[in-house]
Amino acid sequence: MPNADPRLVDQAIQWMIKLRFNTADDASTAAFEQWLHTSAAHQLAWQRVATMNDDFTQLPAHVSRHALDGARQRISRREGLKLLGLLAGAAGLAWLGRDYTPLPALMADYRTATGERRWVALNDGSKVQLNSASAIDITLNAERRLVNLRQGEVLVNTGADNRPFWVHTRDGYLRTLGTRFVVREEAQGTLLAVQQGAVAVYADSHDASARQMIKPGEQVLFNRSGIRPSPTNGLDPWAWSDGVISAHNMRLDDFLAELGRYRNGLLRCSEAVAGLRVSGTYQLEDTDQVLKLVAQSLSINVTYRSPYWVTVSARV
Amino acid sequence: MSSDHPLDHAAIGQLYQAHHSWLRGWLSRRTGCREHAADLAQETFVRLLNARKQQTLQQPRAYLSSIARSLMIDQYRRRELERAYLESLAHFPQVEVPSEETRLLILDSLARIDRLLDQLKPRVREAFLLAQLDGLTCAQIALRLGVSKATVERDLSKALHACYRLRYAEC
Q1: Do B80 and A74 touch (CB under 8 A)?
Q2: Cα–Cα distance between B118 and A102 in angstroms, integer?
Q3: Smallest CA–CA separation between B10 and chain A, in Å?
Q4: Which pick of A102, A159, A185, B167 has the fewest CB atoms within 10 Å?
Q5: Is A285 in CB contact (< 8 Å) with chain B?
Q6: In which order are the strands placed within the sheet that holds A180-186?
Q7: Which residues of B touch A48 (CB under 8 A)?
Q8: Cβ–Cβ of A106/B69 closer than 8 Å?
Q9: Which CATH number is B118-167 given?
């Protein structure tokens, strides 16, 4: 493809602004016609500048604006998790001339896709299981063992070792020696549930309650305003580790929000059915099948507008 | 930059032999999926075939992993964009749900625009969207943003130049 003269490209851009983004009068239209017919190079420059607008002409304005803003917000929320150690990645990108901010989860040592689970064995004998759409970094050195939770949820089984085992999340630190626990990021903070041993929580907060020892059977949520007990919503926090979702008298909207973590696209329910209760254990392997079974037991409708957009509502 | 020339194919062949399986491993650890990693590794070399680079690579693995990283980020952004788009559709119930094919076309356009917007300063971005999506004139945008019309025209010029670079510089 021939290269357009940069000076002419600049002129073409100025014309574009004058004609398309201003109210053009006859005089300027005539002047533009004259400019355009100066040479073939002028026409090439104009043609290239004019076709740049193709992307916009076919887009529905409101939806597009909403989507673009939405995507930026989603991405910058995650950038709030920005951590050290990303600078190398940033340099690599800048060098490629791409203006993207590196995203922590993508730079992580280990990562799972949506719907995937995975065990990672550490060489101290500890094992960490990543739930769907999760990411971690691991640092082992002479003084400590550290798992950095960048996104999602992990189950930790610490091995016998004298070094303290730390987990860093966006809301603070957890410290332990020998235990089994799960940690997950939630919208309001980090959720911790302990099964064995004990875990010390150091929330990233100045509140007096920011340090606590959490014992087996306990479940807490911590964030910048401290640590507080987190009553169960009916979900068995350990079930995913075995590849199932297990609910006891759980609200349907909560259940669907949880199920939505294991599939792409949107999963919504109408107000009318949100408060229905779900009990049972379902295989996460096939989330469509789970929806089908739940719909049968509650006598509700599941509508697929596309595989990415599923709505659950009352049966008409 | 006419002095640039692509790496020749033999050099890429050597790179492929020496680093392809390393790259696949690297990607596999990060994506957590072997098949996905294989696709991305392949895609990385395709990108390399099209890339312009003047001299031989000093640190091929650093270079390859930075391409691979940007591919992962592209995919990540695209996924976020897709989710945001679906949410937007749900938000405007009067808008008809597009066919799968139209949806992909719209997402392609949105992805290109998103990449562009990422390079613009907030005011420039806003002015550009008001002009392109909402169809406002420079005078209307000036009023809306509380700046002069000349400023709006300068902002739009910046945005269009960035648009041009993105669209044509990589050819």
Answers
A1: yes
A2: 12
A3: 22
A4: A159
A5: no
A6: A118-121, A127-130, A153-157, A180-186, A189-196, A219-223, A226-229
A7: 164, 167-168
A8: yes
A9: 1.10.10.10
* Residues of B (5-34) whose Cβ lies below 8 Å from A: 29-33
Q: What is the pLDDT of residues A196-230, one digit of tens each?
A: 888 999 888 776 667 889 999 899 999 888 899 99
- Helix then strand then coil, in percent of chain B rounded to 5, is 75, 0, 25
**Which of A264, A133, A77, A111 has its CA nearest to residue B40?**
A111
Residue B13, both tokens: 């062949």
Mutate which of A5, A10, A17 to test chain B, going by most B C-beta atoms within 10 A? A17
Nearest to B54 by CA among B45, B63, B41: B63
Contact A21 B117 (CB under 8 A): no
Beta bridge partner(s), residue A151: A135
How far apart CA B71 and CA B59 sit, in angstroms, is 19
Alpha carbon distance A122, A144 (integer Å): 13
Please state the ipTM of this predicted complex: 0.72
User: In angstroms, how far is the first alpha carbon of chain A from the final one?
Assistant: 58
Location of structure tokens 């559709």: B89
Pick B84's closest partner by Cβ from A14, A62, A71: A71
Which of B135, B128, B102 shows the shortest CA–CA distance to B113? B128
> Which residue bears the tokens 């001299």?
B55
Structure confidence at residue A297 as a pLDDT band (50, 70, 90):
very high
